Amino acid sequence: MAKEFWDQRYAANESVYGSEPNAFFKQFIDNHKPGTVLLPAEGEGRNALYAAKKGWTVHAFDYSEVAREKALKAAGEQGLKIVYWNQSIEDFRANQQYDLVASIYVHLPAALRKQYHQELIKSIRPGGYLLLEAFAKEQIEYSSGGPKDPALLYDAPTLCNDFAFLHVLSCQQKDLHLNEGPFHSGEAAVLRLTVQKI
Asked: Which Gene3D superfamilies match (predicted)?
């Protein structure tokens, strides 16, 4: 979707995806010692702020300048430091390695998805982890959020194939009740992937 779409959505809503961190991301952060984390398409900063509170060194980016401004404002109000820049997924290239890379609800056409996932792999340091949470194909039956184009929804075999050269720790599809702001609310079909670069 166009940058203007996201700027408008973030400007028109006090909180698009809620102020609390994604539950899958929070669980990982709570159970691992702090390190460095990259958060692509981070939006208003809910995950970045939580990781920073827990002592992580946080780098994040998003297409939307409005989202970045809101995230940095919240970080300043909470006395937290995050590095946050504006960039599109199309232009993202790995130039640093992190202990953790977390891709939370980033839905892309097939060719761009493969490119993006390859850059994510390059962004993980040896021994580091990648978390991915996204809507499954079955989400098309729900009204709790996500793309309405089935081609932009994911399935486990495709994700496992994208990260075939990493060690898959878990790859699960779950039916969840989302409570992540007005655009992720209600019953949902979700995929959760955890991989490690050995």
From this structure: Vaccinia Virus protein VP39
